[in-house]
Amino acid sequence: MSPEALLAFNLVLLAALASPGAAMLYVIKTTVSAGRMAGIQTGLGLGSAAACWTLAAFLGLESLFALFPWAYGALKVGGALYLIWLAVQTWRHARAALGEGDAAGARYFLSGILVNFGNPKSMLFAAAVILTVFPAPLSAVHIGVVVLNHLVLELLFYTLFALALSAPAPRAGYLALKPVFDRIAATLLGAFGLRLLLEK
User: Fold this and answer.
1) Residue (of 154, 158, 123, 113) closest to 53 by Cα position
2) Among 4-18, 72-86, 88-102, 161-175, whose mean pLDDT is lowest?
3) Which of 2, 84, 176, 184 is the Cys-Cys partner for 193 at CB 3.0 to 4.6 Å?
């Protein structure tokens, strides 16, 4: 595995991380509503799930999904329903007052994991990138390096993102228009869920 291939892998990952999607929207909403630590923990969950999808791509899970399409479909439906549930909860509590910020708790980590685990397209994306960037089979050690690299990159990205969004100015702007922002977030999360549900 060459350094150039790992660099190319990282650049593709960064482009994917920066693109708008359910994961990005969810970490934004969590950070501005629940604080810095909640955003970091959500990012840790999102990154852990994404790294697991990369490992699954190396292990050939896409072939298993091809053999058992119902497993792929069940995972996709479960993920879509979870996003829709998040959308409903966000809409319902749009006018509710915020609790204490920076609360620590496993629920943020778990929510991040569920958001990314519920999108098996992440594994198909990882498989496509891996085949393009690493055409030759990798040793177990190199696979471990790529997966760990993916996890670290995601954690750094989401941690920096949470630190920026939890600054006083963005948080004050969110608090001033909380019902509006929450309903926009709810609509987008619901749309992501419906798209995941309806896509083949």
Assistant:
1) 123
2) 88-102
3) 84
Element (H, E) at 32: helix 22-34
Indicate the Cα dihedral angle 103, 158, 156, 195, nearest 10°. 140
For tokens 């594994």, the residue is 123
Give residues with Cβ within 8 angstroms of 32, minimum separation 6.
165, 166, 170, 171, 174, 181
DSSP state of 102: T
The number of C-alpha atoms within 13 Å of 72 and in the hemisphere containing its C-beta is 19
- CB of 60 within 8 A of CB of 180? no
pLDDT digits (tens, 9 = 90+) for 91-117: 887 777 665 444 556 889 998 898 888
Tokens coding 121: 């397209």
Q: What gap in Å lies between CA 145 and CA 34, rounded to an integer?
A: 33
Q: Does pTM top 0.90 for this prediction?
A: no
pLDDT given for residue 98 in this prediction: 61
* Cβ atoms 50, 150 nearer than 8 A: yes
Q: What is the DSSP string of 126-191?
A: HHHHHHHH--SPPPHHHHHHHHHHHHHHHHHHHHHHHHHHTSHHHHHHHHHTHHHHHHHHHHHHHH
